[in-house]
Amino acid sequence: MYPPAGGVISICRPTEVSGAMTLRNPGQSLDDTVRFRAHWTIFLPTIIVALLYGGLWVFLLVVGKGDTALARILLLVLLLVVPVLLVRAYLRFVTFGLVIGRRALTYRQGWLRPGWHRIQLDTLTGVRASMNPLGRMLGGGALILTRLDGGDICLNDVEFPEEAARQISRRLRTMQARHKPI
After folding, report:
1. What is the pTM of this model?
2. Which of 29, 39, 99, 171 could form a disulfide with 140 if both were Cys (CB 3.0 to 4.6 A apart)?
3. pLDDT tens digit string along 67-86?
4. Dihedral of alpha carbons 103, 26, 92, 162, sign
5. How far apart are CA 48 and CA 60, in angstroms?
């Protein structure tokens, strides 16, 4: 699933250490490579659609209106649209990846863009994490990479985007310190 980087394939997970929440990264290998994957909130739209349409359909059945056109439309959405949304979310979940190395990062954004893209860190000017309130509560969000040419690369649905931004920023600072003129 991930390109070879000489380390164990894993993800970042929060662990509790001495009462404080810290990030442990079992995906960090000996060559200082860190891996991140998609966040499970990719499935939230599918869950919401299934609950709303399913709840309305059950309500119509309970009140004796289960044979109406509205009930049939709700059932059609449950049987056709929800599985398509579920497959799409699953494919996005399993095909997203972000690998941060010492001098480059490699990412894959999903099943519609199946190839891995490699960016040298010296072509980036900045990185930031973007999280909505729900993302802050659940730990998911977007990672926005700013390139030298002024363009942005947005990686949506990243698990622990703030940690990914910290890892990239640390590597950028290290590279800038090494190449700083005397």
Report:
1. 0.72
2. 39
3. 999 999 999 999 999 999 99
4. negative
5. 18
- Per DSSP, the chain holds a count of helices (H) and strands (E) of 5, 9
Distance between CA atoms of 15 and 105, rounded to whole angstroms? 25
Q: How far apart are the first and last CA of the chain?
A: 42
Exposed, middle or buried by CB within 10 Å (0-12, 13-18, 19+), for 157? buried
Which strands make up the sheet holding 124-130, listed edge to edge? 124-130, 140-147, 152-159
Cα separation of 20 and 117, whole Å?
A: 36
Long-range contacts, stretch 50-57, CB < 8 angstroms, 24+ apart: 50/78, 50/82, 53/77, 53/78, 53/81, 53/82, 54/78
Whether 173 contacts 179, CB under 8 Å = no
Residue-wise pLDDT for 39-73, tens only, equals 999 999 999 999 999 999 999 999 999 999 999 99
Which helix (DSSP H) or strand (DSSP E) does residue 89 occupy?
helix 82-95
Q: What is the distance between the alpha carbons of residues 106 and 3, in angstroms, rounded to a whole number?
A: 8
Contact 156, 140 (CB under 8 A): no
Q: Give the integer Cα–Cα distance in Å for 152 and 146.
A: 5
* Chain center to CA of 9: 16
